Amino acid sequence: MPDFTDNLKPASPGGPEILAEERRQSDVPVGELAQHLFPHHDFLGRQQRILHVLGQDPLFSKAKQMNLSRPERYQLGLARAKMLRRLADQHGWDAEDQSMSQYLCDDVSPYMVHYTMFPTTVREQGDEKQRAYWMPKIQAGEVVGCYAQTELGHGSNVRGLECQARWDPKTQEFELHSPTLTASKWWNGTLGRTANHAIVVAQLLLPKSPGSTEYANHGPHPFIVQIRDMKTHKPLTGIAVGDIGPKYGYAPMDNGYMLFDHFRIPHSAMLSNYSRVDPNTCTYSRPANPAVVYGSLTAVRASIIMHARLVMARAVTIAVRYTSIRRQFQDRDNNDKSAPELSVLDYPTVQIRILPLLATAFALHYTGAAMQALYANTRAQIDKGDFSKLAVLHAQSSGLKSLCTELAANSIETCRRAMGGHGFGGGSGFIQLNNDYLSKPTVEGDNWMITQQTASYLIKRMSSAVANKGKSQDEVEQTCRDWLSNEHNSNISPLSIFDSDEQLVQAFHRRSRDLTYRAYVEREVKKRSWNSLLIQLRKVSHAESQSILVTNFHIALNDSKSSPSPALKGHLQTLFRLFAYYTMDAEARDFVKANAVSDEDLDMLPGKIQELMAQIRPHAVKLVDSWMIPDFLLDSALGRSDGKVYEDLFHRAHRLNPLNEITFNPYYKSDEIVMGQGSDELKKIMAKL
Amino acid sequence: MSTPQWVRALKPGSPQGSELLEQERSNSNVNVDALSHFLFTKEGIARKQRVLKVLQSEKVFDKSQNYFAGRIDRFETALARAKKLRQLAVRNGWTQDDRLTANELISEPGPYGLHESMFLITLRDQGNAEQHEKFLRPAEEYKYIGCYAQTELGHGSNVRGLETTATWNADDKTFTIHSPTLTASKWWIGSLGRTANHAVVMAQLIVNGKSLGPHPFVIQIRDMKTHEPLENIHVGDIGPKFGYNTMDNGFLLFNNFKVPHISMLARFSSVDPKTNKYSRPSSPSLIYGTLTWVRSTIVMQAGGVLARGVTIATRYCAVRRQFQDRDAPEWEKGENQVLNYTTVQIRLLPLLATTFALHFTGKGMMALYAASQKKMSQDVGKVGAPERGPGPEETHSGSDLLADLHATSCGLKSLASYTAVEGLEVCRRACGGHGYSSFSGIGPWYADYLPTATWEGDNYMLTQQVARYLLKSARSVLKGNEATNDTTAILSNFLSRQDTGAAFDILGNDSELVAAFAWRAAFLTFEALKHRDEQKKPWNSLLVDFYRLSRAHSQYMVVKNFYETLQASPDSSDGLDPETLGLMHKLFRLYALHTLEAEASEFYTSSAVTVRQIQLARTNAVMKLLEELRPHAVRLVDSWGFPDWQLDSSLGRYDGKVYEDMFHRASELNPLNRVTVDPYPDSPTLFKKNEASALKSKL
C-alpha cells in the first residue's frame, strides 16, 4: 500500500554518494586484487553463474526467514536442500558448483552431512565391496545418511564413547546397544529428521575366543546402519531417534539424538577398509596406519581456515561500508561548527576494531592457501605411505584451526558491535552469520582442547633437538636446533622490526621457539604436571600459529610467481605490517622475554599501528570490494555495495515485516491479544504452552 | 511420537550429575545462606521466593516452548504475559521492587517495558502539574500506553543530530511535528512498534525560524478504540533482531502532524503561548542524575547477568567429565571433571570473582548516588532547583561528588556491560558443544543482554566523557587545587610521589594492590594530558588512549569497591563469617591479579610493579588462587541463588540432572519431532505428516 513514506529520502549526503567518493579517491586495483585472491577454479565466474540461478527462485529469498519458528526453519531448509539438488541435476553442476550453491544459499542444509562426512567415511573406511554397494545409492539420494559419533556425555574424547557393538558369533551379527542415557548419540547433523542411514561409531566388543562369554574392547569403530524405514521414514524398532531441539544458530539443521536397544546389524555393516573382524574366528585385525585419517582431517582443517577468511572478509565488508557511510559527531578540533559529522570510520577507536581484522582476513587467506598447496603436494607422498610431512602439517593444523576460527568468530561480534545500535537489528547481516558461525570454535575439536596437540608436538621436537642425536626428524626439529644454537642466548640483540620485514617475521619465530623451549623446560626438566601447564600450552600453540600466519603472509608477498603489481603490493605490505604489529602489540611481553624485540620498539608499536591504519583508511572500501562478496550473500542493509543503507533498513521494517500485518490489543484489562478476535488468540497461545 | 519404555528406563552413565554436585557441595564449607544475605539482604531473598511462587502458578509464564517459537508467537505470548503480570501486580498490590523481581524471574523483555520505565519517568520528571494530570494519571492506569522515542534511523548517541522537527505555529498555538527525511524516522523505540498508543517524542524545537535543540513532546499516535495509527503517522515494528524478539522495537514517521501546546513537556523549558517566547532549561543536572542512576543499575545488573552464565557453566563443568588426567595414577580410572582442568578454571573462576566485583561496585555507586542526592538537597534545599546552576560537567570538576560519580559512571557502565557480554560468551564456550544448544540457557540470554553494550551510550563513545573529566581533574590538581574527591585524591597522590616512584607490594598486601590500580590510572591520566596539552595532539588521534585510560580508571574503581565492601563486612549486620570472608578476599585477589596480568604492560610502564612481580602473579599467585577456590566454586555460585525456573537451563540445574533434562527437552518438548519427513530430493513432499501451518504463506 503506498503511503507518505514512499517519497522520503535519507538526509544528505546519501550512502551511494559517499561510497562513490570513497571508491574514486583510492587507487586499489580491485579487479587485480580479486584475481589475486581467487586464482583457482574460476571461483568468481562460478559465483556469478550460480548466483544468477539462485537469484531467480523465490525459495532462496531471505526476506522473511528470521521471523520463522524452528520447525518452519527446518522445513524451509529441507525445501531448499531438495531444490539445490534438483537444480544441480538440471544444470549439470559439478562438485565445485554444488558447494558454491551451498555457500551462496548461506543456510545450513539438512543434507549437509549426507554430502560431506557420510560419503567421505564410506569412501575412506569402507572396503572395495562396501564402496561398490553404498556409493551409487548415496549419490542417487536413495540412501540419505549422517555420521553419529558424539554422544550426550562424550565429545572430543572418542575413547570415552559408551555406545557398544557386540559381536554375536552364533547369529553372525553385531548387536548395537546404548547402555545408558549418556550413551545417546547427540548433536549429529542430518540425523534428527532427515537421514535413513547413519554411520554409527561404537565400541567394538569381541568374544575373547569364539565360545567365550568374556569380551574384549577394541575401541571405537564405524558401522553403517539403516535407521528408518525406506517407505514410511519411521524409525526402525529398537531405535529411538529425533531432533535435539533449538540451538544458538543452525536452525535448519536437524542435529539429532539416537539410542539403540539391542539392535542387530549384519557383519557387513562394519566398515572394513582398515580394521576387520573375522566372522569365524572372532579375530580382529588392526588398522594398517592410522595416519591416513589425519590426511582428510588436515584437508578439512585447511578448508575451515579458507572458510574462516571468507567469513571475516564478509564481516569486515559490512563494517567498512557502513562505518564509511555512518556519521556521528563533529571533529572536536574543527572550529567550523557547521562542518558535517565525521565518518565513523575516521575514528581511531573504530579503526582499531575493524582494520586489523581486514588485515587478518588476508593473513588467513595466505596460510589457508599454503596449507592446501602443501596438502596437495604431499598427497603423492601419503599415497606412497610416507607420512612425515603430514605429521608436521597435522600438528600445525590443530593450532591453526583453533586460532583462526576463534579470530573469525570474534571478528563477527567485534564488527557487529562497531555498527552501534543497528548491528543488533535483523538488517545488519550479522545475526545469522554470528549464530551459525559460533559453533565453529567448539566443533571438530574444542579450540581450547586441541591446542594441546600442537603444543605436545612442539615440545617433543624440542626435546629431540635438545638431545641433538643424529639428523633432525623434520623441519620443525631443525628450526628448534637452529634456535638452540643461535638464538637461545641472553646476549642476543633484539631484531629491528621496523627496518626489515624479514626481521619482523624472525621476531615471531624467535618468540615461538622461546615459548616452546620454556614449556619444554617446565614439562620435561621440571616435570610439572600436564594439567597445570594447559594454559601455557595454549600460548605455545597460538604463538606457533601466529608465526605461521606471519610467515606465509610474508612469503606470499614476495613470491615471484603471483607477483602483484607495485600499486597492489604496496597496499598488501601495509596490511601485512598492520597484522604483524597488531598481533605483536597484544602479546608484547612474550617478545621482550624472548629477546625478539626491544622495549623501545614495543613502546613505539601503538603509534606505528595508528599510522598504518591511517594509510589503509582511504582504501578500506576498495579493499573490501576486492573480496567480491555478493549482496545476495551479505543479506545486509548496512553492507550493501550501493550504499543504500537507510532505504533498505526501512524497506525491511516497513514492507517485509509480518508483525506489522497484525493489530494488537494493548490494554491489560482485556484478555484479547489480537484486535477484534476476542480471547481466542490467548486460548491458542495457552494450548501451545 | 511417544517415547518407548526402554528409553524411559535409561539412566546417564555413572557417576550421576546429582552425585557429583552433592560431592562438590560437601567438599566446601561456604555458608551459602549467609553469603546470599550479604549479597541481596534477607528481604530481597524472601521477596524473590514469594513472587516466584505466584508466577509459577500461572500457566502463561510456562517457559517450555520459548526456545522453539517464531517471532510472532513469541511476541503474542509476551503480550499475554505482560497483561497477566499487570493484573497480578494490581491484584496483589505489588511494590516497585516486587515488579522488578517478577521481571527478573521471567527474564524476557516485555511489550510494556518502555511504558513502565522511560515513559512514566519522563512524564513525571519533565511534565508540569497540568501535564501530570492530563498525561501521567491515565498512563499510570495503563489507559495511555507509551514509549520514549528519541533515537532515529540515522542518529543515535549524538542527540543534537536528530532530524525530527517540532515547529511552533503562533497563529493556532500548535506544534507541527514533521519527519523531513527517511533518516529522521524514529527507530529502535521499545514498545512503539505494536503496543503503544502514546509516545514521548524528542524533536528539534523551532520557534520563529530559530532552532532551539531537542525537546520532549507527548503525542497520541494510535486511535484509542481501534488501535490503528492516526492519520499522517506511520508507525510499525522494525523486524527481528539478534535477541529481544519479545519486544516490539518500532519506527515512527510524522507527516506535518499537528499537536496542541500542552504536548511539549514544560517543567524545564517552555514556549509562552501568548508572547511566543521560549524560556530555557533551568537545570539539566537532574537529567544527569537519572542517567547516573540508570548506569549504576546497569553496573549492578551486569554482575547478576554474568553470574547466570557462571552458575550454569560452573555446575555443568562439575558434572561434565572428559579425558583422563595424563598424570593420574593407574587406579584412578574415570574421566576427569572438566572443572579440574586449569584451562577451564582460568576462564571461569576469574569470571566468578568478577560477578562479585561488579555487584559490589554497582551497590557502592548506588550508595554514593543516594549520599550525593542527600547532600545536594541539604546544600540547595531541593534537587534540581533552578539556582543550582549549570550541570555537573560545567562546574569545577574537583568539587562535586555527583560530578565525579556521573563521569565515572560512564566508564563503569562501559566496562561492566562489556565484561558481562564477553564473559557470557566465554561461559557458553566453556560448556563445549552443549553450550551451543538453546537448552544451555546461555545463548538466548546472551542475545537478549547484548544491546546493553550499545545502548545508553555506545561503550566506546562513552569513554571519551571519562577521559575529558579526568583531564580536567588533572589540570585542576596541577594548578595546586586541593583534592575534593577520590579522583583528585589519587591524582594528587601520584604527583607527590611521582619522583620517588612506587613499589607496591601487590602480592603481599591487598590495600597496596588497590593502590597499584590507582597509580596506573593516574599515570595514564597525566600521560594523556601531556599528549593533549603539551604535544597538542588532535583529540581524534587520542581516542584509543582515552579508551584505555577510561578502562584503567574503571578497573581501579571496581577493585576499590570490592576491597572496601570486604573491609566493611565485619562491621555490618549482614557481615560474613571469617571463613567465607577469607574466601571473598581470595576472590578479590583473583580478580585484581588476573586483571593486572591481562593489562600487564600498563602496570609495568607506569612503574607500579616490576616485571618480576607480574611474572610471579601469573605463575604463582593466580594459579594458587585457582587451586584454593576450585573446591568452593559450586557453593559460591549457589550463593547467587538463581531458581532453576529463572535459569531455564539443562546444563545449569541445581540438582545436576543435566543429561536427563537435555534428553527430556529434546525428546518430549520438541515440536519438530512431531513431524515425519520425506527426505528424498526428487520428491516435492516435505513433511509426510505436518502439524505446522502452510509455510508458503509465511514466506
UniProtKB/TrEMBL annotation, chain A:
Residues 502-669 form the Acyl-CoA oxidase C-terminal domain. GO terms for cellular component: peroxisome. Residues 31-143 form the Acyl-coenzyme A oxidase N-terminal domain. It holds the Pfam family ACOX. GO terms for molecular function: acyl-CoA oxidase activity; FAD binding; fatty acid binding. It is found in: Peroxisome. Transmembrane segments: none annotated. This is Acyl-coenzyme A oxidase.
From TrEMBL, chain B:
GO terms for biological process: fatty acid beta-oxidation using acyl-CoA oxidase; lipid homeostasis. Its cofactor is FAD. GO terms for cellular component: peroxisome. The keyword Transmembrane helix does not apply. Residues 147-256 form the Acyl-CoA oxidase/dehydrogenase middle domain. Residues 511-679 form the Acyl-CoA oxidase C-terminal domain. GO terms for molecular function: acyl-CoA oxidase activity; FAD binding; fatty acid binding. Pathway: Lipid metabolism; peroxisomal fatty acid beta-oxidation. Its main location: other. InterPro entries: ACOX_C_alpha1, Acyl-CoA_ox_N, Acyl-CoA_Oxase/DH_mid-dom, Acyl-CoA_Oxase/DH_mid-dom_sf, Acyl-CoA_oxidase, Acyl-CoA_oxidase_C, AcylCo_DH-like_C, AcylCoA_DH/ox_N_sf. Belongs to the acyl-CoA oxidase family. This is Acyl-coenzyme A oxidase. It comes from Oleoguttula mirabilis.
